[in-house]
């Protein structure tokens, strides 16, 4: 029974990582499409278009980071050696810091966008 739970957890972790890959792939495609739209000249100035694209990309990347952290937690839950726990702690700390700065960037861009909209 224990082996079945470990195997199931590994498969769920793989599925969660696949979800992260799909989120990143979608984010990249959407960002590329938006940049193409900016270059063609649809929808406002280049700076505003690029900033809007960066804001959306950052949001998607933050979601993908959460998925990858969840996969790491699943893997560590079934094989909790001190080495694995230490690696998870380091990975979680790095991702938390990265997510913190991504979130700050998102909030700053959202404030700038709201300020531009209010000024228009």
Automatic annotation (TrEMBL):
Listed name of the protein: DUF1622 domain-containing protein
Transmembrane segments: 12-36
Keywords: Membrane, Transmembrane, Transmembrane helix
Organism annotation: Falsiroseomonas bella
Keyword presence, Transmembrane: yes
Family matches, as Pfam families: DUF1622 (PF07784)
